[in-house]
Design a protein that fits this description.
Layout lengths: L2 H12 L4 E2 L17 E2 L139
Parallel strand pairs: 1-2
Length: 178
């Protein structure tokens, strides 16, 4: 039995909630469509496929999630604080109210990703692309290397502490390089 089959079988037998899978190594695992709420603190999922996964409230703090494919995944309320998300892709993913505090998002790709109310405070955003991303009411205070052109920033707290007015329209996106 491979790692992804083991994890799916384990979840099926033990239930979907309350799992503690800290520090598990599932590099390059194919976990497309996985439904899970668990403690995955410091897990290694580098290169894994988590497209269409349902990971509401999951704890992925300090996890190695470099090069992970989160295409259309739902991570509402997830804890991704201090996680390594270098070169991860989040096309059409939902990160509403997720915590990405001090996460490494270097060269990550966020196409039409929802970050409404998310915390990206002090995150490293160097080279990250936020194409049509929804960052309304998100916290970006202290974020490093942010190029937020192309993102909806109404109500967001910018890296410099400035809050974008909710009613803002027609904002010059070149103003959002930090």
């Amino acid at each position: 039995m491979n790692a992804e089959d083991f994890l799916k079988e384990f979840v099926a037998r033990r239930g979907k909630f309350g799992l503690d899978l800290q520090e598990l190594d599932l590099r390059e695992a194919v976990l497309t469509g996985l439904h899970l709420s668990a403690n995955l603190h410091r897990i290694n999922l580098a290169g894994a496929e988590l497209g269409d996964a349902f990971l509401h409230g999951v704890n992925l703090s300090s996890a190695n999630l470099s090069c992970v494919d989160f295409e259309s995944a739902s991570l509402v309320g997830a804890n991704l604080s201090y996680a390594n998300l270098n070169r991860a892709t989040f096309g059409e993913a939902n990160l509403r109210r997720a915590s990405l505090y001090r996460a490494n998002l270097t060269d990550a790709y966020f196409f039409q990703t929802g970050f409404i109310g998310a915390d990206l405070g002090e995150a490293v955003l160097t080279g990250a692309e936020f194409e049509e991303a929804d960052l309304r009411r998100a916290n970006l205070r202290g974020a490093i290397g942010a190029d937020l052109r192309g993102a909806d920033l109404r109500g967001a707290t910018l890296p410099n502490g400035e809050i974008v007015p909710e009613e803002a329209q027609g904002i010059e996106r070149s103003d959002f390089l930090f």
